[in-house]
Amino acid sequence: MSGPLLQVNGAGRRYGDLTVLSGVNFALATGETCAILGPSGSGKSTLLALCAGLDAASEGDILLDGRNLAALSEDERAALRVDRVGFVFQNFQLLPTLTALENVMVPAELLGKKDARSRAAELLGRVGLGGRLGHYPNQLSGGEQQRVAIARAFINEPALLFADEPTGNLDFETGHRIVEMLFDLNREQGTALLLVTHDLELAGRTGRVIRLRGGKVET
Amino acid sequence: MAWRDSRGSRRRLLLFASCISVGVAALVAIGSLKESLRVAIDQQARTLLGADFVVQSRQPLKPAEEVAAMNLARRTAHEIRFASMAVFPDAGDNTRLVQVRAVDPGFPFFGKLETEPQQVDFQETGGALVDERLLLQFHLQVGQKIRLGEADFPIVAVLKRAPGEAISFSGFAPRVYIPMKRLQDTKLLRIGSLSSHYLALELKPAVTPEGAAKALDDANLSFDSVAKRKEDLGETMENLSQFLNLTGFLSLLLGSLGIASAVSVHIRAKAASAGLLRCLGATGAETVQIYGIQALALGLAGSIPGVLLGIAVHKTLPPALAGLLPFKIEAVLSPSAVLAGLGSGVLVSLLFCIPPLLSLRRITALAVLRESAMATSPAFYRAWIGSNLIIALGVVLFAVWQFGGWKRGLIFAASAGVLVFLLNGVAWGLRRLVRVGLKRIPRWPYVLRQGLANLDRPNNRTRLLILALGFCTFTALTLLFTRDILLRQLRIDAGGQPNLILFDIQPNQRKGLADALKANGRPLVEEAPMVTMRLRSVRGREVKDWLNDPKKTIPDWVLKREYRSSYRDHLSVTETLLSGKFEPHWSLDREPVPISIEEGIARDLGVTLGDELSFDVQGLPVKAQVKSIRRVDWRKFRTNFFVIFPSGVLEEAPATFIAVSRADNAAQSAAMQSHLVREFPNVSVIDLELVVSSVRSVLEKVDVAARALAAFAVATTLLILISVLAGSQTQRVRELALLRVLGASSRQATAINLTEFAALGVFGALAGSALSLGAGWALGKWVFKAPFQPSWILVSGAIPTAALVTIFTGTAIHLLGRKRSAWETLRQEVQ
Predict the structure, then answer these.
(1) Could you tell me the pLDDT band of residue B127, with boundaries at 50, 70 and 90?
(2) Would you call A109 and B446 a contact, using CB atoms and an 8 Å cutoff?
(3) Residue A209 — φ and ψ, nearest 5°?
């Protein structure tokens, strides 16, 4: 595929009369890292949701992997996500009824991959949880849960990883380790990284920073 | 504080409160029904019998007995009842087995024969009062004729109800009342004819029923009085209401488990709030009080609608039961039932909330900082065990109060406990099996594994749901199995088996009857003589002595009944020799006569091989000895008897004959009956189809009670299902939203949801089915004494039905509750 992995052209989102986001333009190439920075309520997460096809833009176009998200059905967007996109959330978002291993396997199983189990075990080993495969989320610390979430995010070797405040619920030390892990995997797999954060230091580690204020990109 | 603290969870908690509403409604409705029955029986006591005292005998009363009875009474009236074939000349000479009742004028003394038109004097006009069913069956009208034997009677009125008799139970042989003075015109009663003779008495003021019974004391007579009838009816009605109460009781217990589960989850969610209260200085007791008040309010919130529902339902019960009851009943709302329902709802739900409330004492101030900061100590566990013992004791006391006695209360409480325990056990086993299966067989499709794994979601209350669904399936299937067993007992293989029994055949009619059957192309499958006799002594002791022995184990009816015995030199196809030797021939001059006795009556009489019995064969004493014990297949439509004499003994005794034949269809049966009734008007025919359809119609009436039970169970289950699924909806929606974000297609997400709901339904139905199969087997073995052949169609139907109901309920709740997109759902949680 030629052209950027993610292309945002004049994207905006309105809820009734309330404009949450407007006129956002940027592009993200394969392997590139970018942070969306801004105070609470600036529209960071809304922009992330639009880019991931979780929400529909009220204006403008968003092209992910060369496909216009507005032209895709919800299931087509889901199929695109599971194949090309990974997610890491602030509050980990693990399924409580599944073990660490099973949680990591979920995206690969949704794709019907045969090697989901071995691949998940390998990734958990990479994030230092090789000995906790059979543990349930409530048996893991916050940092461990986030490492499980990172392993899950990378299992389908996504082209693009969306991370929504990935260190928001972690202490400094743990947060630091998680960030290292994210960037290591980004380098190793050539995965583009789009981070939502209000942590200036974390934003500073990315190749590019988009600052949002009041739903608009600050220039 | 309790009120303020409940903000945000009130709607969810109120939904859970509704779980006990059905149970409370059942208690109020059934309590009021009991009161209605009591009032009706009290008000109509004398009309239940139509007289103060009734003497009954299989033979006409002896002149001395007549005189003795006359001396006790202000008024007397005779009634003779017997089965006979009626012919309807205005309906193409159609025939039907009926029960003829010839009565003297003036009877009933109290109450009346309810007829349409009313106040018709059939005694004066010499007409007949004919059961409404007969007129409906043959499209007859008042003014047309009915022929009994050799006499025609104008139908002067439709009989709606006779004193003390239920309408439903007259289906097999509908009643026809004729004046006593015209009985002889029918020429139906001949020597040996089966008939019952009644003498109704309006007692003199100084004579009590007990005094009358003493004065007329005779082993051949039995007596009925208003008090006895009232007692019998009261007992029957008590059994009926307790039968209904059982499901009300179980519904309330199950609903209370629902409330306790909700309170438990609520309290777990409020751990931080409780910790904060402790942090701010509240004592453990004060914290318990706050949530205790909430639990109390929940019990009240569930009970009040239950009471209102019960009040509405109680009005519908008397009309629904009208056909089953031998008296008129009007709905009476019982204030004590209302209070009892309200109190039971509140107290039982509070009782079940003791363990979750107790867990509050574990919460320390540290819970504000650390959710897992729960104090654990041996004292806590002792208290936990203590609280569960209090629940068990509370349930037992509740059952004792509900069912009016320690024995019954303990039995019902233990049954409920065993049911809940077993359902829990089966549910646990099934889940364990799936869990092991999920681990051992990783190749299961992902959506299936995810859906099944969801059953272990924290706070999912899977166990409660399976328990509720299992309870519902168990109730419905056990009722259906019971019905099946009853119907199967009547079912006879249609393939060429006899289906007609002809009785009251006089010895001189045997040949003519055989010829008539042959002329109609009907086979004479079997013929047997029948000699009536009574017991004189059992194991050397006079029947009179047995009857006066308060410690005897032989039931009165077994001692007092008229034995219709037969004689032959072989066992019939329906008999199996269990022990001893069947003696084919004997002579009367060699006593004791070796007889063969049926195993059930041998058990009731407490006799075994070698024991002696003495019979009064229409005045002639005959000594007999039990030489063999037989098993009789009573379900077969044959000439079956309790006692069989060898040939050569009873041949000279007055006897009538019974014959067995077969018709391939209703038309053949009708043609044959029509022919026979013309030639042999005294011979009656029982058509198997008539028996089965009559029992079916009674069962249909009894089904009202069964349907009420099933309705209570289904309603409670649905409420629990809705409450629990709605309670776990937030978590379910969050998980599905996450899966959608991770890339699950809508089909995969839906399949996961459906798998979870279907698994719940299937597990619940499997647990309930397994137990109902056990209950069916136990009922068949010990209650109905019939082999239990489970209907696998019913079982296999119950499982998809439960799954579909759960899927439908779950999907409806899911769709109603899904208001936000997947992303918004996940974001909402962060905020």
Answers:
(1) very high
(2) yes
(3) -125, 130
Q: Which amino acid does the sequence have at B191? A: I
Q: Please give the residue of chain A at the shortest CA–CA distance from B827.
A: A45
Q: Is there a contact between B453 and A117 if contact means CB atoms under 8 Å apart? A: no
Residues of B whose CB is below 8 A from A55: 821, 823
Contacting residues for B78 by C-beta, under 8 A, at least 6 apart: B103, B104, B180, B197, B198, B199, B200
Average pLDDT of the residues in B56-74:
85
Residue B192 confidence (pLDDT) above 70: no
What residues 766-825 of chain B have any CB closer than 8 A to a CB of chain A? 821-823
Eight-state DSSP code of residue B110: S
Give the best-scoring range by mean pLDDT among B399-403, B419-423, B509-513. B509-513
Is the CB of A54 less than 8 angstroms away from the CB of B741?
yes
Instruction: Give A48 to chain B, closest Cα distance, Å.
Output: 10
Q: Is residue A79 within 8 angstroms of chain B, CB to CB?
A: yes
Nearest to A97 by CA among B624, B462, B658: B462
Helices (H), B44-139: 63-72, 122-125, 132-137
pLDDT of amino acid B373: 47
With a cut of 90, say whether residue B179 has pLDDT above it: yes
Best of A75, A90, A165, A196 to disrupt the B interface by mutation (most B CBs within 10 Å)? A75
Burial B637-673 (b: 16+ CB within 10 A, else e): bbbbbbbbbbbbbbeebebbbbbbbbbeeeeebbbbb
Q: Testing the interface with B: which of A94, A110, A136, A170 to mutate, by most B Cβ within 10 A?
A: A110
* Residue B188 per-residue DSSP state: -
Look at chain B and count its residues. Answer: 831
Residues sharing a CB contact under 8 Å with residue A111, sequence separation 6 or more, in sequence order: A82, A83, A156, B743
User: A56 vs chain B: nearest CA distance in angstroms?
Assistant: 11
Interface of A with B in 17-76 (CB under 8 A): 45, 49, 52, 54-55, 74-75
Whether the link from the prior residue into B592 is cis, omega within 30° of 0, is yes
Question: Which residues are B579's β-sheet partners?
Answer: B629
pLDDT at res. B644: 95
Question: Which position has the higher pLDDT, B8 or A125?
Answer: A125
Phi first, then psi, for residue B534 (nearest 5°) are -125, 155
CA distance A112 to chain B (A): 8
Is 90 exceeded by the pLDDT of residue A27? yes
Of B458, B742, B744, the CB nearest to A96: B458
Could you tell me the two tokens for A141? 């610390």
Query: What's the burial of A45, exposed, middle or buried (CB within 10 Å: 0-12/13-18/19+)?
Result: buried
- Residue B450 sits at the chain A interface (C-beta within 8 Å): yes
Lowest-pLDDT range of A121-125, B226-230, B232-236, B587-591 = B232-236
Q: A125 by DSSP, 3-state: which?
A: helix
**Averaged pLDDT for residues B323-349:** 82
Average pLDDT of the segment spanning A32-53: 89
> CA-CA distance, A123 to A108, in Å (whole number)?
12
Flag if A78 and B456 touch (Cβ within 8 Å). no
DSSP one-letter code for B63: H
Torsion over CA: A141, A143, A146, A152 (sign): negative
Strands B53-57 and B196-203: antiparallel
- What is the gyration radius of the CA atoms in chain B, in angstroms? 34
Supply the pLDDT for residue B493: 47
Nearest by Cα to B78 from B192, B199, B212: B199
Write down the pLDDT at residue B70: 86
Predicted confidence at residue B830, as pLDDT, reads 45
